[in-house]
Amino acid sequence: MKNLIVPTVTLRTALKIRPMLLESLNRYEISPWNYLDQRLEFFFQYTGLDGGLFLRQLEDTEIPAAGSDWEHLPLHFLCDFLTEIHRNFLLQDIPDISHILDIHSIPSSSEGGWLLEIQSDFKNFVQQFILLLGSEEDFLFPKILRNEACLTDAKVHPEFHRGSLHIYLATKNSNQEFTNPAPLRSLLEKTQEHLAHDSQSFYAQNLFDSLLGFQVRLGEYRRLEQEILHVRALKTERELYNRSIRGDSRANFERDPRDSGILRLSLS
User: Fold this and answer.
1) Cα gap 205→232, rounded to integer Å
2) pLDDT tens digits for the chain (268 residues)?
3) Which long-range contacts (CB under 8 A, 24 or more apart) does 254-262 make?
4) Backbone dihedral region of 77: left (phi > 0), alpha (psi from -120 to 50 degrees) or beta?
5) Which of 143, 131, 29, 9 is CA-nearest to residue 76?
6) What are φ and ψ of residue 155, in 5° steps?
7) Residue 169 carries which DSSP code?
8) Which of 33, 197, 201, 252 is most solvent-facing, going by the fewest CB within 10 Å?
9) Reported pTM
10) Which one, of 26, 256, 59, lies nearest residue 156 by Cα?
C-alpha cells in the first residue's frame, strides 16, 4: 500500500494509508493537522518539504515490528501496524479463503452443496468485516492520532464534533457482528463436521486450515486493539476532557466553531 501515497492524494488519505507518516513529519518538526484536506503536492509547497525525498523516505519506513513496546510507543506506531494487518486480511486471508470457495472450482457433487452454503456464510461475514475495517481507518485511527497530538501540541484542537471514542467503542462492542468471533467460529465448526464425515475432502481440509489461521490472526489483532489501543485511546480522550474541565492552560486549543462542546466545558 506504500506506493498509493503519491503527490495527488490528500494528506488525510496518506495518513490513513500510513499512520507512520506522522513519525516522518515529526523529524521535520512539521504538524499536519491544518493541512489534512490539502493534496500532498500543495502541502509540500506550503511547508517547503522536498516532496520526492519525503515520499522516498516514507516508502523506506518499515512497518513497526510485531511485539514492539506498544504500551509506550506513540500510538501512530500501533495504528500503522494494525493498518498493515488490515491489508493482510483483505489481500491475503480473505482472497485465499474465497479462492477455495470459488464457485467455478466447486465440484458438482454432494460436497458442492455444502461448500455453496459455506460460501454464502463467508460472504456475509466478509461484508460486515470490511465495514468494520473501514470504520476503523476512517474514524477510529484518525481520531486516536489527533487526540494524542492534542496532548502535546496546544495548537491542535480536538474534533469533538465528530463524536466521542467512548461512544464509538461502546457501540462497536455492543454489536456482536463486529466483536464476536461467532460467525467465523461457526464456519470452522461446520467445516470440522464435514471433515468428520469425509476426512479425505481436499476442499474441507484446505478450508479448515485457512479459516483456523485467519481466526488465530484475527484473535491476536482483537487482543492488541482491545487490551492496548482502546485502553490507551480512551485514557487520552479522558485526559483531554479533564484538562478542559479543569481549565488547564494546556487545553486552550485553537478551536474550530464546531468544537463548541469542549469550549463550553472549558468556560464552565
Assistant:
1) 40
2) 556 899 999 999 999 999 999 999 999 999 999 999 999 999 999 999 999 999 999 999 999 999 999 999 999 999 999 999 999 999 999 999 999 888 656 656 566 677 788 888 999 999 999 999 999 999 999 999 999 999 888 888 887 666 789 888 888 776 655 545 678 889 999 999 988 888 888 888 999 999 999 999 999 999 999 999 999 999 999 998 888 777 655 544 444 444 434 443 333 3
3) 254/154, 254/155, 254/156, 254/157, 255/157, 256/157, 256/159, 256/161, 258/159, 258/161, 259/157, 259/158, 259/159, 259/160, 259/161, 260/161, 261/160, 261/161, 262/158, 262/160
4) alpha
5) 143
6) -85, -10
7) H
8) 197
9) 0.86
10) 256
Cβ-proximal residues to 5 (8 Å cutoff; 6+ apart), any chain: 14, 17, 18, 21, 40, 55, 58, 59
